[in-house]
Amino acid sequence: MTTRVEITTAVVRELLSDPKIFPELPADLDEDAELALDSLGLVWFLHQLGTRYDLVVEPEDEHLTEFGSLRGITDYLNRVRPGESHDG
User: Which residues are in the Carrier domain (predicted)?
Assistant: First the structure.
């Protein structure tokens, strides 16, 4: 049984700090500061999210605008938590 971990901005910040995404992400980056996550970074972020937290999401194109800040990503992930249908 997997323990459900709350997805917080700290969790998102940790995942985004991966050297393959944002190797020099400032620790004090504001939660609403704009981020530019490229497609390879997004793929790696989603892979790490699934690997570390057993949370698999496949955002639709129209939801990708929500991946522009720590808060936006966190809010999106908490909206699509397991237990809801993700079949699109």
Answer: 1-81
Structure tokens given for 35: 């981020």
- Beta bridge mates, 82: 84
DSSP state of 63: G
- Please report whether residue 86 resides in a domain: no
Place of tokens 């400032």: 26
CATH number, domain of 58, equals: 1.10.1200.10
pLDDT per residue as tens digits for the range 2-22: 456 789 999 999 999 999 999
56 is written with which tokens?
Answer: 């698999």
CA gap 81, 27 in Å, rounded? 26
